[in-house]
Design a protein that fits this description.
40% of the residues lie in helices and 23% in strands. With 283 residues, the chain is α/β, with parallel strands linked by helices. It has one domain: 3-Layer(aba) Sandwich (Rossmann fold), CATH 3.40.50.300. The protein has a six-stranded mixed beta sheet with strand order 6-7-8-3-9-10, sandwiched between helices. A four-stranded antiparallel beta sheet has the order 2-1-4-5, covered by helices on one side. Helix 2 packs across helix 3 and helix 4 runs parallel beside helix 5. It is globular and about 50 Å long.
Length: 283
């Protein structure tokens, strides 16, 4: 492994009554260049905190993060971020929102070249026809397409995704997973994505890092995902290893569940329903 993105001994504490609260402790993970890794875990376990530290938006209490051999401190254009809500500027069009990032990373390019780059990435996510619309005129899924286009337009060394499809309906979520797979397959940007959806993790990633529950959460195991690329949803879901991998992920998550959380049977039924919906879409 060439350890293109490396997180070592990451710890994050926050002030709390009676002393500091340890959210993440001793978190270690390394990604190879061009690898897609998903981080799964229960809600509130600290997944987004880890991603925010990699993005430079939250400072680690201790430990370090390296991107392409350089230790980071603070945010930078070498890391493109796609949030659950795309955070678009409402007074700018879709194209202008993407151009903001392009101007930052290509300040010496001509205006025509900057526009060409932005239009190329909007076209890749299927949004050129809506390029002159403002965010208020776009659906939630279309706004997230702009967010994905903007992140890739930065030509980042690492793409960070914080549950980017978590607020979307099932059909839109499946569509945007396909968009992400298609664009990433061409760009091959090193990608680190937070999700609580095990089916999403298996469809998108090369490996799945499983996070223990807080307090003092860390990586509790790594699952290798063997499906060939480029990926087809239907082929992935009928693969002989799919259900075994899914059961391994479910078993880990159930082992980390708190006593008052959703029972294993209820969680399994919910996931089964989501799976049936994905198969219907794949057909």
């Amino acid at each position: 492994m060439n350890r293109y993105l490396e997180l070592w001994q990451l710890t994050k504490t926050f002030p709390a009554p009676g002393g500091a609260a340890v959210v993440v402790e001793g978190f270690e993970l390394a990604l190879s260049q061009g690898e897609f890794v998903c981080l799964v875990g229960h809600s509130g376990c600290g997944k987004s905190t880890v991603l925010s530290m990699v993005a430079g938006l939250v400072e680690p209490t201790s430990g370090g993060i390296c991107v392409a051999g350089r230790e980071i401190s603070g945010p930078g254009p070498d890391r493109g971020v796609v949030f659950q809500a795309p955070c678009l500027l409402p007074w700018l069009t879709a194209l202008e929102n993407v151009l903001l990032g392009v101007e930052q990373v290509h300040p010496r390019a001509s205006r025509a070249r900057q526009r060409e780059i932005a239009e190329h990435h909007l076209a890749r996510v299927g949004l050129m026809e809506a390029s002159e619309r403002k965010p208020g005129e776009l659906s939630a899924g279309m706004r997230q397409r702009v967010g994905i286009a903007r992140a890739f337009a930065l030509s980042p060394k690492v793409l960070l995704l914080d549950e980017p499809f978590g607020m979307l309906d099932s059909l839109t979520r499946f569509e945007l997973q396909e968009v992400l797979v298609d664009v990433w397959s061409t760009e091959r940007t090193t990608a680190f994505m937070v999700t609580h959806d095990v089916d999403e993790a298996l469809f998108l990633s090369d490996r799945v890092a499983m996070m223990t529950s807080d307090p003092a959460a860390r990586v509790g195991g790594i699952l290798e995902v063997p499906f060939a690329r480029p990926r087809n949803r239907r082929e992935v879901m009928v693969h002989s290893d799919y259900y075994d991998l899914r059961e391994q992920l479910m078993a880990f998550l159930e082992s980390q569940a708190r006593p008052d959380s959703t029972s294993g049977n209820e969680a399994s039924l919910a996931l089964d329903g989501a799976l049936e919906g994905e198969l219907a879409v794949a057909d």
